[in-house]
Amino acid sequence: MVKLTPLVAFVAFIVAMAPELAAQDSAPFPPPRLEPRIVTPGRTSADPPSDAVVLFDGKNLASWRSSDGSAAKWQVRDGYMEVAPGTGDILTAEPFGDCQLHIEWATPSIVKGEGQERGNSGIFLMGHYEIQVLDSYDNKTYFHGQAGSVYKQYAPLVNAARPPGQWQSYDIIFRAPRFDEQGKAMERARVTVLHNGALIQNNVEIFGNTYNDRPAVYTAHAPLEPLRLQDHGNPVRYRNIWIRRLD
After folding, report:
1. Which of 122, 155, 172, 246 can bridge 98 by disulfide, Cβ–Cβ 3.0-4.6 Å?
2. How many domains is the chain built from?
3. What pLDDT is stored for residue 192 in this prediction?
4. Beta strands in the chain (DSSP E)
5. What range does the domain containing 209 cover?
6. Domain with 194 in it: what CATH number?
């Protein structure tokens, strides 16, 4: 038996594989079968595209309800809604799963309190997974509780907060968890968040419900659930809320 040198062996391997490599080069992937559907973009990146569900356009709370199912009791004026402290959280009338969410918010211009008591609210995806809303401009608190955190799980990559009273934006891409027939989470939820255009959460894996006082854990829920905005006792404002279904 003739023993080949490493170089000769490598050349022989390339020659033998040449037909297969050529076939791969000529057709690396099958072509997609479906043509992408047409979506008309908004005038700016903050405006809803044609397939978005507009949840708040500055006029009324018709798309929202209180936790008990009654009409939402937050205040609407001058194109925004404002938390009416003590009236409770509000939820969307429609449920959502995988989604792209745009939402703008502003904490009070007159600063009161510090830490978690300053301009606190929250955006709960599917009612379970909170992206924190807080006045984080020159305001110290625990890192995974400041604006843009996945509450008590991930600090934001950067603090992109604007001063109190100024409008800020979140653009959120969310993939819902997947549960099996027994209610076990087979795939955890994932989220990407941009705060005022800066990436602050990069496709992070959510470990379960974002509790304040206990470890995160998944509890089985429907594949579609309402979006929830939190009444934490501070008059936080929201405007220009729209969502695109991705499921």
Report:
1. 246
2. 1
3. 98
4. 53-56, 64-66, 75-77, 80-82, 90-96, 99-106, 121-125, 129-133, 168-175, 178-179, 185-187, 190-195, 198-205, 225-229, 237-245
5. 53-245
6. 2.60.120.560
Contact yes or no for 160/171 (Cβ under 8 A): no
Question: Tens of pLDDT along 86-113?
Answer: 999 999 999 999 999 999 999 999 999 9
Q: How far is CA 95 from the centre of its chain?
A: 15
Residues 193/99, Cβ–Cβ less than 8 Å: no
Q: 3-state SS of 103-134?
A: EEEECCCCCCCCHHHCCCEEEEECCCEEEEEC
What predicted TM-score, i.e. pTM, was given to this entire model? 0.88
Does any domain span residue 238? yes
Alpha-carbon distance 170 to 157, whole Å? 14
Flag whether 12 is in a domain: no
Cross-strand pairs, 133: 121
DSSP 158-188: S--PPPTTS-EEEEEEEE--EE-TTS-EEE-
Lowest-pLDDT range of 24-38, 58-72, 155-169, 191-205: 24-38
Sign of the dihedral through C-alpha 221, 244, 94, 86: positive
Within a domain: residue 23?
A: no
Q: What does the alpha-carbon distance between residue 125 and residue 226 come to, in Å, rounded to a whole number?
A: 8
Residue 228 domain-assigned? yes
